[in-house]
Amino acid sequence: MKLKALFLNCTLKKSPKTSNTEAFIEEAEKVFKDLDVSTEIVRVVDHDVKFGVTSDEENGDEWPKILKKVKAADILILATPIWRGDRGAVAKMVAERFDGIMEEGSEENGQFPTYNKVAGVMVDGNEDGAKKAISSMVFDLSEHGFTVPVNGFCYYVGEAGPGPSYIEAEGNKHEFTNNMMLLMAHNLVHLAKTLKENPYPTDVKKLEEKAKEMSK
User: Fold this and answer.
1) Comparing C-alpha atoms, which of 24, 34, 26, 28 is closest to residue 170?
2) Beta 86-87 vs 75-83: how paired, if at all?
3) Are the beta carbons of 95 and 134 closer than 8 angstroms?
4) Most C-beta atoms within 10 A of its C-beta, which of 80, 84, 193, 216?
5) pTM
6) Counting beta carbons within 10 angstroms of the beta carbon of residue 173, is it exposed (0 to 12), middle (13 to 18) or buried (19 or more)?
């Protein structure tokens, strides 16, 4: 069963600037390739993504191109640096743009196009805030229809305050971080295979009607 994983790098730095988050992603890519999963990285800030909460804000908005890649993937991993103790602005914007898919329920059963896709989170920085960023991102992904497996995240955090980040600090040799990365990748792949073989039977439309009846 061939799977594809898409990484959205939510760094604040445009290419070709060095991104610690990208270096972190590249380590995870190696694990996925060992599991026979093809990978692709999209650096969001390299594209003209507009602010908004729909799937297409028009006027040259390039989010639809990225969303097309998301829909074609089996696994999505959002990766962000920490900014002032939380996820960066780009990761927040991506969450806002995913709101658009909640209007794209299928004609058959109303499921979002993200149903039966799995998602994980990667966070890096040199100060505290990884767990806060992860909790916000995991909640958003779940609400947007993705399934997050157990241990579906990993992070690297150096010493608090100014200091070396992932590349300079050789975060790729950090045992705790690498163990989380392995858990994340293996569980994402397992769950993606499981959902391909046993997709959600949830009939969103029927449940919405039932909710209306219960609320009368």
Assistant:
1) 24
2) antiparallel
3) no
4) 80
5) 0.95
6) exposed
SS3 content of the chain, % helix, strand, coil (to 5): 45, 20, 40
CA 28 to chain centre: 13
pLDDT (average), residues 25-53? 98
Tokens in use for 58? Answer: 């028009």
| Closest of 178, 144, 171 to residue 71, by C-alpha | 144
State the pLDDT at residue 98.
98
Residue 56 burial (C-beta neighbours within 10 Å; 0-12, 13-18, 19+): middle
Tracing tokens 């996925």 back to the chain, one arrives at 32
- One-letter amino acid for residue 34 of the chain: D
Over residues 170-196, the pLDDT tens digits come to 999 999 999 999 999 999 999 999 999
Token pair listed for 57: 């804000």
87-93 long-range contacts, Cβ below 8 Å, gap at least 24? Answer: 87/10, 87/123, 87/133, 87/136, 87/137, 88/10, 88/11, 88/12, 89/12, 90/10, 90/11, 90/12, 90/44, 90/45, 91/10, 91/133, 91/137, 93/44, 93/49, 93/51
Distance, in Å, from the CA atom of 92 to the CA atom of 86, rounded to the nearest integer, reads 10
State the chain's mean pLDDT as an integer: 96
